[in-house]
């Protein structure tokens, strides 16, 4: 009898351990808003301590050539969640309360892909792919949502939370900023103090979600509103950085990351959870001391120079992805979806996507990379540049520029509009895009012009009046 009881006890001990080891990995994506390439210590920040970003870099892999699909909110988030160039699915720019489009619910997202694979899915934070139900996250594969429909500066108030009273100001007609739970308005954000609580609210919800779903594979997407302006930080971090409010905000985001990592440790889920931390685009540099750093790359948010699209990416999957690794292969946020599909065994979308599977590269210690080409689009459908390996062909276009007049104390400086000429840059030797070498490399120019023509045929190009053959439509909001 004692022997039988011992066998039963052994089975009870072994079965949970075995099921945990063979369970599909959990997936957590943490997306910062307007966090620049150089805003954390693993990417060169000095003066602002980021111990949890540092920890993640030591335990996982740091990517140095990771690009957002486009350098602005809605478009970039479309690329991340669908694995497509935003213009392929009819999305562009940053949606406003009056916008009449939304991401088509027929598109497959990471959430709907993983939900079909048996995952519970949840989103916290900034959505920005549709302003009203049925264009909130629950209709795109998420089982729950708590957050904002768009950026927290889209409200009828100034940076300090004071009500706009001038009818000539575009913000005058905007509604109060809603805080959404699933498909309903749970609260409204009506003051700067309300905004100061957002990072903490989403962090606490993330921790509770992980603890409440530790027995089933889950996908958690945390899209923090910060460090997008207006900067807002809770009392526990005000004045703590010694680097102004931007430094305080980055310290709180680092704390938030730390809370999530700590919870994974405490629940025993760390080893079987893929953690991905990135930014949607580069820093909004005209806000000066309230903006981040592009890490030395040219320009920032809303431009297709490297400072606009090249963003940080940290990825951890213990025992699978190299600890302390550095991946210097060209990668985009469109590649996250197929990489997650490969890691979880989920089926890829039936519609064409543009992302590539990086999992073999990651499991092999980052020795290879599947991507050689990336198209830099802006606006509705403007092909501004083409990347091929280390080469970048910049095509003639108009661009924003932050060369002059940075703002202070949360006030935005003037954004210049410039004409950008044709140029070829060797990013291996000139990451700042300062030296045009097109005259020295006619063969590269010819090859990259051919790549540009291929993109125009496939996706179109408003700059040359080309309509793409393989584009799909966004949803039209009635």
Describe the structure concisely for a colleague.
The model is unreliable at 1-20 (pLDDT under 50). The chain has two domains: 25-371, Alkaline Phosphatase, subunit A (3-Layer(aba) Sandwich); 375-476, Arylsulfatase, C-terminal domain.
Structure characterization notes:
Keywords: Hydrolase, Signal. This protein is α/β, with parallel strands linked by helices and 478 residues long. It has two domains: 25-371, Alkaline Phosphatase, subunit A; 375-476, Arylsulfatase, C-terminal domain, CATH 3.30.1120. Helices cover 26% and strands 20% of the residues. The strands form six sheets. Strands 8-7-6-5-9-1-10-11-2-12 form a ten-stranded mixed beta sheet, with helices on both faces. A four-stranded antiparallel beta sheet has the order 14-15-16-19, with helices on one face. Strand 20 (460-461) and strand 21 form a beta hairpin. 50% of the residues are buried. Residues 1-20 have low confidence and may be disordered.
CATH topology of the largest domain: Alkaline Phosphatase, subunit A
The CATH H-level superfamily of the largest domain is Alkaline Phosphatase, subunit A
What is the C-level CATH assignment of the largest domain? Alpha Beta
Which word captures the global form? Answer: globular
How many β-strand runs? Answer: 22
Oligomer: single chain
Query: How widely separated are the two ends?
Result: 71 Å
- Characterize the biggest β-sheet: 10 strands, mixed
Strand order of the largest sheet: 8-7-6-5-9-1-10-11-2-12
Secondary structure: helix percent: 25-40%
The number of domains = 2
Beta-strand proportion: 15-25%
Low-confidence stretches: 1-20
| Number of helices, counting only DSSP H or I runs of 4 residues or more | 11
